[in-house]
Amino acid sequence: MNVTDSQLLEIARQAQTVAVVGMQDENKRDRPAYQIPAMLQERGIKIYPVNPNIQSSLGEKAYAAIQDLPVKVDILDVFRRPNAIPALAEELIALPPEKRPGVVWLQSGITHPEAEAKLEKAGFKVVSDACLGVIASRVRPRP
Question: Which DSSP symbol is given to 107?
């Protein structure tokens, strides 16, 4: 999806809930997959960690897979290698509409044009190769 800077800012401004696929826990505080969700949480966003290899992160229960999430999230923020995106796209497309995230956000350096096109064709808004933390920091000041 070709999104303008102002559209990116609006997505980040309005987000209340973010599920983070590939999120790390406190054992890997040096990783962007921990630091960015921590920054988002600090700025008022409810975080839902999604990683089958952790129990919790930032005081939140971790979920093994996106279909396990208890709510529909505003943004699904993805910290996975590009080769994992096609399988993730299939998982997302298989979700019932009431559980689909508002936006699928692929972090900086992550892009998979074929999977993104498939998601968009299925009705998803997709942002790729952009850091949600950088965008959010422009519109969500530190408390």
Answer: P
- Cα angle: 57, vertex 13, 95; to 5 degrees: 60
Look at the block and give the residue holding tokens 């096609």: 86
pTM here is 0.96
Question: How far, in Å, are 20, 51, 90 from residue 97 at the CA level?
Answer: 19, 22, 14
Q: Residue 65, SS3?
A: coil
> Strand 75-78 relative to strand 46-50: parallel, antiparallel, unpaired?
unpaired
Judging by beta carbons within 10 Å of its beta carbon (0-12, 13-18, 19+), is residue 66 exposed, middle or buried?
buried
Residue 63 DSSP label = B
- Rounded to an integer, what distance in angstroms lies between the CA atom of residue 3 and that of residue 64? 30
Q: What are 76-102's pLDDT values in tens digits?
A: 999 999 999 999 999 999 999 999 999
Which domains, ranges and CATH numbers included, belong to the chain? 1-79+100-109+125-143 (3.40.50.720)
